[in-house]
Design brief:
By secondary structure, the protein is of the alpha+beta class. It has 14 helices and seven strands.
Length: 281
Amino acid sequence: MVTVKIPFLDLLKVADSGQAFRFNAIDPTHVELVAFGRYLQITQTGKDTFAFSCSEKDFDSIWKPYFDLDRDYGSIVSSIKKDDSYLLAAAEFGKGIRILKQDIFETTISYIISQRRSIPSITTSVERISKLCGKKIRAPKLSAPFEKPLCTEYYAFPTPGELNALPFKELEDTGVGYRAPYISRAAEEFASGKLDPASLECLSDEDLYKALISMYGVGTKVANCIMLFAFARTGRFPVDVWIQRIEDKYYGGHFDCSPYPENAGIMQQFMFFYERRKDII
């Protein structure tokens, strides 16, 4: 177990932010997730204090970058233009949301699946794919301050080779619809090495965008989501139906990202969460 103080983290908001599709609330103070072939549970134990069900080594090498813990989100919020009442309200409402730096292959496939889909239906397909060809992860036996995991077993998201070996008919049966050929081609290109995560990470934003947009079935929104949520390119600003609605209603059809060249994607997350949840929470 690792206990750490994190001044800008709200577990429930991150779980409900729509960034990741296997990050779930257990109760008001506990969440669980599966990522990088591991099960993790986190609980809030005090003001800005959190316990992680992992080793120090895994926390430092995996979960610290995953939760973007080296970034000062407080100063980013302070940089919001004072005359932008909507964004100020969105940032206050979304306080505690961090951009998750997720596995590149899983994020690519997940956001290919996401096209014209609701978050619950994306989650269902991702879980079905993981159960079909990902490695089984047995739920750990945890003691206080943690809770019993929601399931007895979980599944890692498959590697490119594992997904590439899945028969196409079985892939179609996961409910991905017309996206099945896009997923199949992406798995083949990652498995063959044509698309290499380490090489992609070294590219500039412009070249990375070009590489992603050249993939079969990947458009502008999906490419920007992959850049933001897998490569931590926080200057990207994905526009989906929610963001377009915000731009049309509050910004005359276009949100000006130029005041936030390095943090537009963080602003996007505040706006996305606020617009989806402000009338519910």
